[in-house]
């Protein structure tokens, strides 16, 4: 694992709302808290700059949004499993500022001591990257709540999770093509986007202030894998306030950033079995050629 570097950058304007947190469908809030308990690697990032969320990807590395990592200093904290861990350094993606938008909204935090209260999330790489579209995902973060009717409330942030379908890449609506997007559907079928490709999921929800840097997880083979980092929320061709029905939630598509994550941390994603088979076949063919 490579040692961390302490590189901080200055924030600029985002293409969409840069904050994110869990806004719920009008169901029992406890169901969303219980769902979040299945993802113990997600915690709260606090200190200088924006307060948000992060995901533990090793015992000392935390993956988060660039606009959350931005400005974090030695002594700031990542709380996971009910314990505060001290941040020793922070880095944002090298293209974050030069892109002029949230196209590279990823950051890394290095902790001064190993985490003992939670295990790290595993990242997943599909053999065909577009396979992620149409998957039901779970968005997890520490943020404000509310409902699809009221939007974000002023209640204190807490760890919650909601489900949603990953429907398209951001470029479909002129947003960043490095993001995956879900929309917030009402269970009764009203106030939904006309271009939505599915009905509401079992714990439908949306992002709102506080969830930025939290994780998007997809279950494959019974394992909950990290595939995205919460980045923005907003509306496209739909009026109204963020985090109400009809809004969208955007997350960085980690498949497009694995080379950077690996080079900075030494941590790699778990390949889909098909990729393993192709790698093994490639090695076998190379052996045959050498013979």
Automatic annotation (TrEMBL):
Signal peptide: 1-20
Cross-referenced Pfam families: Trypsin
Keywords: Hydrolase, Protease, Signal
SUPFAM superfamilies linked to this entry: Trypsin-like serine proteases
One annotated GO biological process: proteolysis
Peptidase S1 domain residues: 11-266
GO molecular-function terms, A-Z: serine-type endopeptidase activity
InterPro entries: CLIP_Serine_Protease, Peptidase_S1_PA, Peptidase_S1_PA_chymotrypsin, Peptidase_S1A, Trypsin_dom
Protein name: Trypsin-like serine protease
Source organism per UniProt: Luteolibacter yonseiensis
